[in-house]
Amino acid sequence: MTTQPQHRHPRPHRLRVPAPGAPPLTGHLPFADAPGVPDPIEVTSRRLTRGGRPWFPVSGEFHYSRCPAGEWEEELLKMKAGGITAVAAYVIWIHHEETEGRVRFDGDLDLRRFAELCARHGLDFVPRIGPWVHAEVRNGGLPDWLLARDCVPRTDDPAYLAPVRAWYAAIAEQLRGLDRAHGGPIVAIQIENELYDQPGHL
Predict the structure, then answer these.
(1) Three-state DSSP class for residue 41
(2) Residue 38: phi, psi to the nearest 5?
(3) Residues 39 and 132 in one domain
(4) Please, how many CA atoms are within 13 Å of residue 14, restricted to the half-sphere of its CB?
(5) What pLDDT does residue 14 have?
(6) DSSP letter assigned to residue 23
(7) What CATH number does residue 104 fall under?
(8) How many domains does the chain have?
(9) What confidence tens digit (pLDDT) does each residue in 115-169 have?
């Protein structure tokens, strides 16, 4: 004789649904798009919008510094053909500044060219500028010379923040004019990565 398993009925869940026609919340998150853009991006309690219409960006990762520059365009076109609308890319510090003071943005490290290729093909761009990126790269992307210093990375230690400022300035120079305020493809920037316990530092 077989017995049927006893099924326990879960407790009912209550779901609050806004009244039909009730407007979504706006302004509840500290977010602002570039002023004067023709298709402003906004965050509501229900959705992202762009130019006042619901917007669902589909993002895919492409770490340009790990791929020969001659292959970038073809790979971006493959991403677009697959439905990607926004390309996120780590800007990996250790790749760009292996030697302190010698920041490279040439060849396979040409961040500006990569961003311009995204724009050429109608892809939004999200640079993930670290300084710590993880990305399965040595030191989480922090240069060896930085870790050899007497400083505490990923904190407000002035000895850490000084080289970070220089790194961010170098990135900003490369991406000058490619932000949304100037009609460029950059829709967002991610700072740091997976830092959960220091909101003040972020």
Answers:
(1) strand
(2) -75, -20
(3) no
(4) 2
(5) 82
(6) P
(7) 3.20.20.80
(8) 2
(9) 999 999 999 999 999 999 999 999 999 999 999 999 999 999 999 999 999 999 9
* Structural domain boundaries, residue 69: 58-191
Buried b / exposed e along 129-151 (16+ C-beta atoms within 10 A): bbbbbbbebeebbbbeebeeeeb
Best CA proximity match to 125, nearest among 174, 54, 198:
174
Residue 187, in any domain of the structure: yes
- Number of residues that make up the chain: 202
Average pLDDT rounded to a whole number, residues 176-191:
96
For residue 179, what are the β-bridge partners?
186
Residue 50 and residue 112 in one domain: no
Eight-state DSSP code of residue 24: P
> Are 45 and 28 in contact, with CB atoms under 8 Å apart?
yes
pLDDT reported for residue 194: 92
Rounded Cα gap, residues 157 and 147, in angstroms: 13
Q: How much is the pTM?
A: 0.87
> Which residue is associated with the tokens 């490290």?
109
Q: Which residue has the tokens 């919008």?
A: 49
Q: Is residue 199 a part of any domain in this protein?
A: no
Task: Give start and end residues of each alpha helix (H) in 40-194.
Answer: 72-81, 93-96, 111-120, 144-147, 158-174
Distance between CA atoms of residues 163 and 19, nearest Å: 52
**Same-domain pairing of 179 and 114:** yes
C-alpha–C-alpha distance, residues 45 and 31, integer Å: 13
Q: What is the DSSP letter of 96?
A: H
